[in-house]
Structures are given as structure tokens and as C-alpha cells.
Design a protein that fits this description.
The complex is a heterodimer. Chain A is built from 22 helices and 16 strands. Chain A is α/β, with parallel strands linked by helices. Chain B is of the alpha+beta class. The chains are: A alpha/beta, B alpha+beta.
């Protein structure tokens, strides 16, 4: 086990979207100048959001959100601390799932108070068997000043700086109580040089790591020069510390005090403090423990009120001996007093610098021919925030060119033309054309990608796929052409296939689609894979070859990314038709009446 | 609280409810009634299913969480000779026991309110065994002895076999360990049976989240088990898992302890409803020093310090509020304390400690708003009792909280000294006492 609890690189997965606690962690990160935020991800089982916004200093950052721990872990393998903020009803299950993930977590902190004792014992034992340190249950957490702090420990950022918790001091601190933990940090900062590592072990009867576990780690942590233990009436954990001192396992000076001397005045029945705080025998009383610790050579004050002087004394002695050195106070970044959450987020382009950028690339670096970049590259930057390889950007451009226009008769172009003739502007005419795009016009690209991928993902044979589509009551999108057939192939499709065969690393979905085409064309000659189908299917193959997960590709399809290629490409054609109308100065269009079937009946009267 | 005692009757009822699931091969006839008066017992005997109350000799004893009832002469099992107690004998005995206060050998005093009445089980001393289970350190421990009855505590070391069962021990290992430790004093012909029973007893104790379960004595006659006396505590944090299995369970106040006052009850009810924590115990209603302290740890430190510096007699209450209570919860809590502390005169005047450590996340200004409203309401009474108020607190928004409460005190004409985190947490106790 590493002898330092946390470092400046430690990252946690925060179970439960506890916004104020997470914000406190990120404020701390900013103040101490961490490079990476201490919260790598949040698990929020009932949320459908993908991230949560937090302030990082004056700016905002996005912390990813997951529905379960497994998903969070798969994306954040370096996060080895789980902050389990589940309720007492579910905290056990959350911990056990994490413990069973093998090497993922080194530390699990459990905040819930009142987990059933038997479950707490099982959880603690399972963690121990797997070499995982459990802090809690019923705790406010732990802190390694200057490196990493859990949730609310230390309180507000002002208090943290006042208590010198923003940088490492020399004391190792272990308490049961979370409230007094803060108080002691304050005392230590006033009477010594602050804390090197601090843990509030939690107030429940069965907590994972006890005093001795934490003190032994601190004994071997070179940053810790002396230790402070604040115990409570009840239990015998302090005696393990006494044993370690007597046997020489712990050599660093310890200052200790057990609170709860009041309990001796009252017979059972009055519960002072935490659930763990109840003396069942004489040796569990605060007096007995304080006396035994004093006898073992631990520095024990006469009362809690005298604790500050004892701390000051031990610290001064260690400093005289040269064991504790002067600390150089680090620069502290300050958090702005008022911060405004941003209403909009942009992750694709930025116009704040010298020159606007597309996904980090200045426009000039992609615009002119000498850059070697084309419109496909711009799309890959602005749509996908990636630099696609040449074969992929070439394919994107091929698609755009292929779908740019299909003559004046198709409904979108027709609408655009009619609107232009009504005297409307280019943009007005264009959008009437674009608004026609949907499930029946241009939608086959989406549909083909969706259904062929679904069939392929589920290992359907072509026969099964056809049967499935029949059951769904949907004609297979991307199959069939008005006039083209196997014997009279569509040249555009031929071109796309040829390009893919030559340049795509693999074309698994196209290969599958062609086996389906074999079956459909055996039924009817014109049931070929058409141009919409080919584009949709090859887009999927492109993304697969680029390393996207099936889930990510499904999200592209769901969000209408495929349709976007059609919209963009066809815009070129629509604008052409609108400009054509303007050039020809065509008059207002009125549809001939003889082309309309009039069938109007007198309206029925409803009583 | 985590471990809470239940009545003998309720413990037996849990056994009966789950007997067939756990104790296959053994038989237990749950014949017990819990009554609060002699008349209730007489009425019960008329009910269908309770004919045995008229037909069998009976045993009666109080069922109020205290032990050593035999030594306290609080078990009725004979009038002339063992096993001759009739229904009317038992009823009269209950009437007699309820007619006066009872003092136990331990010095605890009180009125008897609950009795358990059962059939008398004729058996020999040799048929009495002992069995119990609880948690020691981090392990479950099963205790078994061939000697049941009251004498078991004397000579515990020699007479009792204990089996440590770590939480991760498999059932196979547990069963082997239990069988290997069946007390030698149990007759050979019964060893096997007792071992099986002990294993099932342990599983029952474990699965039903008992924190402590003792049958002393348990009488084994063939496969018939007679639970003559039972002590049980439940882990109440498991209550949400055990709702159906425990049934409608009551956690009575231990005998001799006064029932909670209405004020304590009201705070306990507010606590149960709140996500925050509100606790109040009145130690001495006439005490001079009253505390309203935030946080479980800090509240103990204040109590320690007051007992050290002023003596425990002056400490009127123990309690704490924490976990971010709302303004109205804090106000209610404060008003309860102010009301209690202005009931009895003290010529020296009263001291009110509004204390707390440096909060982690509780908004101090917000909770102080609740206290200020309570101060406004009780200002006259507090002044009439010559109350000196000492405030010490830190945490989120504490500057505003301290400023607000100071202003309120000046406006209301209350004596108040206010300190922040630069003052040691319990130093206000010393200051208050030196005044």
C-alpha cells in the first residue's frame, strides 16, 4: 500500500450528483492549482444528462455523468477513489459493486450514516480482502492538503485557507467526528503548521478503516512528522494504537484525546455523540482510554481545552530538533466572489483569440488550397471535432457531390422554385425546400443506416431481415429504384462502391447489404441497393473503420447526423434552382385547375 | 442508536413467525401473552386460541427489558409448589405487583406495566441449556452452555463454549465450528440435536439482524424447544430491510428510566421527519447551564467541559443539531430549549451556550436566523431569568450569522458575548463561568 493517501493526481468518481460538494472539491482544486479536476466523473443513476457544469475558478468545466459505476469506470480508468454518497439504503450495494471491480479502486469513502451493521461489516471485510481502504461510513471524508480533498471536508474555501488546508503541513490527523475534524484543523493551524494528511474515520459502530490503520500509514508517510488522534468514549480501537506505540511500530509522536468524559456521570440510556460512542465496559470509557494512552507515552492533555497547548509544545519541540522545517507559503489562487453560470456551451469553435479556430485549427490553416484541406476536413473538424484521414474526408466530399441535386421535379426543389417565383428571397426559398426533407424525402439514408445496422448487429440472415421488416410493416429503406436495376445499374452507386472498395479499410455493412440485395433482386429486378442506401451504409462503415463504438454510431444515426449530409449537399442544388428562377425572372406560379380533382360535398350538419 | 432492546414477548413472536423457515426438525409452540393489567389477562383467557390460560399451570413475570427477574423475586411459578399457578393466581399477582413502585436489586425504580404470561414447563435442571449470540469486536460470537438458568454467569469461563464467526466465514465452516464446540456437558444422545439447533439459531440471529439474542434457559425435550427466558436487541438500522420480518416492533424505554418528556418526544419526532439531526436529552431540568450545540462531536466536548469546570449538576441538557437543519427546524429546537430553561429559578441566573465547531457545510447564518426568531419570542423570559448567552461558531457564512445574532441581542437587550473560530471551541464555557 502506498504510504500517501492521496496525491495531486488522485481523481475520484463521485457517486451521486451532489452539486455543492463537488463544486467545493473543484474550488479547492482551482485554489491549489491542480492540473486535472479531482472529480473525473459523476454517477447519477436517474439522470439522462451527459455532463454537469461546474465552476473551475472563474470558468466553467463539464464533468461527465454516467448512469452506473461500470460505465464511469470504463471511461476513467485512472480514477481510483470512489466517493460513495448513496443513501444508507443503497450505499452497501454501491460499495460492493465497486469492491468487486478488482483493481479499479484503492479507496472508497462512504458518507451514509446508519447502514445496517451486518452490511457495514460485510462491506468492510470485502474491502479489506481486496486491499481497498474504506473511509466511513458516516464520515465527512479525508484530505491531503495541497493535493486532494473529499467533498465537504474542511468546510468553505475561506475556512480552508484560514486553517491552512490548502497546503501540506506536518500533522497527521485522525478523528471520529467530522465537525471536530474541522475544528482541530483550525487549532493545528493556529498552534502548529497545519495538516499533512487528515481522515475523519466516521461515527458508526463499524467503520472500514480505524485509527490504527490510518496511523500506521501516516507513520510511513514522510510528510507526516507527528500525529493527532481524537477519539471518543466507547470501543477499544485506541488500545490498538497503544499496542503499536508500545511495540515500536509507531515511533512518531502522537497527541491524543478521547472526548466523552461526561458519560461517566450517567448510567446507560443517554447516548452522547455518535452511534459508536457508548462504553460497554470500564476500559471503554474516555477516562480509561486517556489514562492508558498517557501511560504509554502518548501526549494526552488534561482536558480538551488544553489540547492546543500540547499541540503547540510538540510542534515547537520537533521544530527545534529540525524534524519540522519552515514551510514556504505557496501562491493561492482566489475564487471570484460572484460567478455566473453560462447559458451556452460551445465545444467546436472559438472566436476569442487572434484568429477564429475550427476545433483548435485557425481558419487560415484549413482554408486555402495550399493547406491541402478540403470541405471534408472542415466538416470533420466542425461536426465531429476530429481530424479524419484523407479517405474519409474524400468520402464525405463524394457524398456531398453525389446528393447535391436531383433535378427540378423532386418535391424539395419544386417547393423552392414555387417560393422563389412568389418573389421571396434566396433564404426564404431555400428553407421551403429544406423543410421538405424528412422521412419521405432524403430520409432513406438515415433509414438504411438504421435498419441495416440493426440487422447486422443482431446477426440476422438476409431472410430474417426481410421477414423482420415485413413484420415491422416498413419497406426496406435504401432498397429499390424507379428505373434502375441489376442490368441497368445506377452509376452513382457504382462509383461509391468502387471508392469504398479501394479506400475503406473494411466495408462490413456494405458486404452485408449486398447479400440482402442478392435476395431482394432475386424477387424483383429493380430492388437494388440504391444511392441513399449505399450512402447510409457506407457512412456506418466509415465510422466503424474510424474506431467509433457501435453505440456512438447509433447516436449519430439517432441525432440525424446522416440526414445532415443530405441537407448540406442538397442545399447546393436548391440554391441553384432558386438562382435559376431569379435569373429567368419567372412570374408567380399558379397550378392549373385541370390538374386538380375537385370533389367537394356540402358539409353535413351536426346536431 | 443502533442496537435497541425489545420485549421478551416480541422476541418470541419473531421466533414463532419464522420458526418453520429456520428450525426444521424442531418444534416450538408459541404460547405467550403480553398484558398490561390483570383484567386484560382475564379477558385474554376468554379468546379463542388462548384456552390454555385456563387449562394449564402458568408462569408470569414482568416483560420490561430488565433481567434477573428470579433474583428480584418477580417470577410467579408457584403458589404452594411449582406448577400450581392458575389464571386467577396470576391475575391477582399482577394486581399486587402493580399496586406499588418496585425497586430492583440494581436500584432501578419504577412501576411495572407489562407482563408476559406463559404455560409452566415441567422439566429437570439437566434439560436446561444456554445459547446466545452477539457481536464482539468485528466478529459474531455464539455462546453455548450445558447449564442453563440463572447460574450461568457465575463461572462463565468454564461453563460456556464460544465460537467466533468472522463475517466472511462460509456456512460450512461455521457449521463445522459449531458442531465441534457443542458443550461436553450435554448428554451424548442430545449433542447432535443441540448442534443442529445451535446452527439454526445462529442463522436466525444473523438473517434477522439481531444485535444480541440470548435464550437462558432453553429447554430441549426431544425435539420440543421451550424458550423459557429470552433477551433480544435488534440492529434498528436494518429496520428498512426487516419491516416485514420483524413485524410491528416496539422499542420500549428501559425500566427505571423516565419516559421521555413531551419536549424530548417532540424533538425526537422532528428528528425522525427531518434529513438533519436533532437530539435532546434533559439531564437536570433545574440545571443552570443550558446548551444548544451544533454537531455530534462538539456537543460532547461542551458537555465534557461543563462537567469539568462547573460540575455535572449544573449541566441541564445534552443535545445537538446538525446536518443542515432548516430555519424553522432550528427555531423549533431553540424555542424548546428556551422554554425548558425558563421554568425554574436559579439565584445565580442562567447560562446559555450556543456553541459549535467550524461547520463543514451547514449555513451558519441560516440556522442562526431560526435561533434569532426564537430569541425574539423568549427575550423577556430569558431576561427574567438573568440569562447570559455565549455564542461560538464557525463555518459557511459564519460572519453574517455572528453579526446578525449580536445585533438581535442588542436590539432585544439580552446579555450576549459572541465569538468566532479564532476562539477555542469550548473557551466560552470558561468565560461564562468566570463572569
Amino acid at each position: 500500500m502506498s504510504n500517501r493517501l492521496f496525491t495531486k493526481d488522485t481523481q475520484a468518481i463521485f457517486w451521486n450528483n451532489n452539486k455543492s460538494a463537488i463544486q467545493r472539491m473543484l474550488d479547492y482544486d482551482y485554489v491549489i492549482g491542480r492540473e486535472k479536476p479531482s472529480v473525473a466523473a459523476i454517477v447519477a443513476p436517474t439522470s439522462s444528462n451527459k455532463f454537469e457544469k461546474f465552476f473551475y475558478g472563474p470558468d466553467e468545466i463539464m464533468v461527465p455523468l454516467y448512469r452506473n459505476t461500470a460505465d464511469a469506470v470504463s471511461e476513467h480508468e485512472n480514477a481510483d477513489v470512489l466517493l460513495n454518497f448513496a443513501s444508507f439504503r443503497t450505499a452497501y450495494d454501491v460499495s460492493m459493486e465497486a469492491i468487486n471491480m478488482g483493481d479499479q479502486f484503492k479507496t472508497i469513502m462512504v458518507t451514509a450514516e446508519g447502514i445496517p451493521e451486518r452490511l457495514a461489516r460485510k462491506m468492510n471485510q470485502a474491502a479489506k480482502d481486496n486491499g481497498i481502504l474504506v473511509i466511513g461510513p458516516a464520515t465527512v471524508g479525508a484530505i491531503t492538503p495541497g493535493a486532494f480533498k473529499i467533498a465537504n471536508i474542511g468546510g468553505t474555501i475561506e475556512n480552508i485557507i484560514k486553517s491552512k488546508l490548502h497546503r501540506a503541513g506536518s500533522a497527521g490527523l485522525v478523528t471520529r467526528s467530522g465537525g471536530l475534524f474541522n475544528e482541530l484543523c483550525n487549532i493545528i493551524s493556529l498552534n502548529a503548521d497545519g495538516v499533512a494528511e487528515g481522515v475523519a474515520i466516521g461515527g458508526d459502530r463499524f467503520v472500514g478503516s480505524v485509527f490504527i490503520d490510518n496511523l500506521l500509514r501516516m507513520e510511513s508517510n514522510p510528510d507526516v512528522k507527528y500525529m493527532i488522534l481524537l477519539g471518543e468514549v466507547g470501543g477499544t480501537e485506541e488500545y490498538k494504537v497503544i499496542e503499536a506505540v508500545k511495540s515500536g511500530k509507531i515511533k512518531k509522536p502522537i497527541i491524543a484525546w478521547c472526548i466523552g468524559t461526561i458519560a461517566k456521570h450517567f448510567s446507560s440510556g443517554v447516548q452522547f455523540g455518535h452511534a459508536g460512542a457508548s462504553a460497554n465496559a470500564e476500559r471503554e470509557t474516555a477516562e480509561a482510554k486517556n489514562a492508558a494512552m498517557r501511560e504509554a507515552g502518548i501526549h494526552v492533555p488534561n482536558s480538551f481545552n488544553d489540547l492546543p497547548q500540547v499541540i503547540h509544545q510538540v510542534y515547537t519541540d520537533l521544530k527545534k530538533e529540525g524534524i519540522i522545517k519552515e514551510i514556504e507559503e505557496p501562491e493561492v489562487r482566489t475564487i471570484p466572489k460572484s460567478r455566473k453560470p453560462k447559458n451556452f456551451i460551445c465545444t467546436i469553435s472559438d472566436d476569442r483569440g487572434e484568429e477564429a479556430t475550427y476545433a483548435g485549427f485557425p481558419i487560415s490553416s484549413v482554408a486555402t488550397p495550399d493547406t491541402g484541406k478540403g470541405i471534408g476536413d472542415v466538416i470533420s473538424l466542425l461536426w465531429f471535432k476530429k481530424q479524419y484521414p484523407k479517405w474519409a474526408t474524400d468520402f464525405i466530399e463524394t457524398v456531398l457531390k453525389t446528393v447535391a441535386d436531383h433535378g427540378p421535379a423532386v418535391s424539395g426543389a419544386h417547393n423552392a422554385k414555387v417560393t422563389a417565383r412568389a418573389g421571396k428571397s434566396v433564404v426564404e426559398s431555400l428553407v421551403t425546400g429544406l423543410l421538405t426533407i424528412g422521412p419521405r424525402f432524403g430520409g432513406a439514408i438515415d433509414g438504411a443506416a438504421k435498419y441495416f445496422k440493426y440487422a447486422n448487429d443482431n446477426n440476422m440472415t438476409p431472410q430474417e431481415f426481410l421477414a423482420y421488416m415485413k413484420k415491422e410493416g416498413v419497406p426496406i429503406p435504401g432498397i429499390g429504384h424507379r428505373i434502375k436495376s441489376l442490368r441497368n445499374p445506377d452509376k452513382r452507386v457504382e462509383g461509391l462502391k468502387k471508392f469504398a472498395n479501394e479506400y475503406f479499410p473494411s466495408t462490413s455493412l456494405l458486404d452485408y447489404a449486398l447479400t440482402v440485395e442478392q435476395l431482394t433482386t432475386s424477387k424483383k429486378d429493380n430492388l437494388i441497393l440504391n444511392v441513399d442506401g449505399t450512402i447510409g451504409i457506407l457512412m456506418v462503415d466509415m465510422w466503424r473503420a474510424l474506431g467509433y463504438s457501435e453505440q456512438e454510431i447509433d447516436e449519430f444515426i439517432e441525432s440525424g447526423t446522416l440526414n445532415s449530409f443530405f441537407i448540406l449537399g442538397r442545399t447546393i442544388g436548391f440554391i441553384g434552382h432558386v438562382l435559376d428562377e431569379k435569373r429567368l425572372a419567372m412570374p408567380m406560379y399558379r397550378h392549373p385547375m385541370d390538374d386538380i380533382l375537385y370533389d367537394v360535398q356540402p358539409a353535413e350538419k351536426i346536431q | 442508536m443502533a442496537q435497541r432492546a425489545i420485549r421478551e414477548y416480541d422476541g418470541k413472536a419473531i421466533f414463532a413467525r419464522h420458526w418453520n423457515d429456520y428450525f426444521s426438525g424442531f418444534h416450538y409452540s408459541f404460547k405467550s401473552v403480553l398484558v398490561t393489567s390483570a383484567d386484560e389477562l382475564r379477558e385474554k383467557a376468554k379468546e379463542h386460541g388462548f384456552e390454555w390460560l385456563n387449562q394449564e399451570p402458568l408462569v408470569a413475570k414482568p416483560d420490561m427489558l430488565f433481567g434477573k427477574r428470579g433474583k428480584n423475586d418477580l417470577v410467579l411459578f408457584k403458589v404452594e409448589k411449582p406448577g400450581d399457578v392458575t389464571l386467577e393466581d396470576a391475575a391477582k399477582w399482577i394486581e399486587e405487583k402493580q399496586s406499588h413502585e418496585v425497586t430492583l436489586l440494581t436500584g432501578q425504580k419504577g412501576m411495572l406495566t407489562h407482563f408476559i404470561v406463559e404455560p409452566f414447563t415441567p422439566h429437570s435442571q439437566e434439560q436446561e441449556y444456554y445459547i446466545s449470540a452477539t457481536v464482539v469486536d468485528d466478529d459474531d460470537v455464539l455462546y453455548m452452555s450445558a447449564e442453563g438458568g440463572m447460574e450461568v454467569e457465575e463461572g462463565w469461563e468454564e461453563k460456556v463454549n464460544e465460537v467466533r464467526i468472522p463475517i466472511n466465514m462460509s456456512d460450512d465452516e461455521m457449521e463445522r465450528a459449531v458442531r465441534a464446540n457443542v458443550p461436553a456437558g450435554i448428554p451424548d444422545e442430545a449433542k447432535e440435536r443441540f448442534g443442529s439447533f445451535a446452527i439454526q439459531f445462529f442463522k436466525f440471529y444473523r438473517d434477522l439482524n439481531f444485535a444480541y439474542l440470548e435464550i437462558n434457559p432453553i429447554v430441549m425435550i426431544g425435539n420440543d424447544m421451550h424458550i423459557l427466558d429470552l433477551v433480544a436487541r435488534l440492529d434498528d438500522t436494518a429496520g428498512f430491510l426487516m419491516k416485514d420480518k420483524w413485524g410491528d416492533i416496539e422499542f420500549p424505554t428501559p425500566f427505571g428510566m423516565e419516559d421521555m418528556s413531551p419536549e424530548e418526544k417532540a424533538i425526537a419526532e422532528a428528528d425522525a421527519k427531518s434529513g438533519a439531526s436533532l437530539k435532546l436529552t434533559i439531564l437536570n431540568p433545574e440545571g443552570r447551564i443550558w446548551t444548544m450545540v451544533a454537531g455530534g462531536g462538539a456537543s460532547v466536548v461542551y458537555a465534557d467541559t461543563i462537567a469539568d469546570l462547573a460540575g455535572v449538576k449544573d449541566l441541564a441538557n445534552y443535545g445537538e443539531y446538525s446536518g443542515g437543519p432548516t430555519e424553522s427546524e432550528t427555531q423549533f429546537y431553540a424555542e424548546t430549549i428556551f422554554d425548558l430553561m425558563t421554568r425554574y429559578e436559579d439565584p445565580r441566573g442562567k447560562i446559555l451556550i450556543i456553541g459549535g465547531a467550524i461547520a463543514n457545510f451547514t449555513d451558519v447564518a441560516k440556522t442562526f436566523t431560526g435561533i434569532i426568531k426564537a430569541l425574539e419570542k423568549y427575550a423577556d423570559k430569558l431576561k427574567a431569568h438573568k440569562t447570559k448567552i455565549y455564542v461560538r461558531r464557525g463555518g459557511p457564512n459564519y460572519e453574517k450569522g455572528l453579526k446578525d445574532i449580536k445585533e438581535a441581542a442588542e436590539r432585544l437587550g439580552l446579555y450576549m458575548e459572541v465569538y468566532g473560530p479564532e476562539t477555542h471551541v469550548t473557551d466560552i464555557v470558561r468565560m461564562a463561568l468566570e463572569k
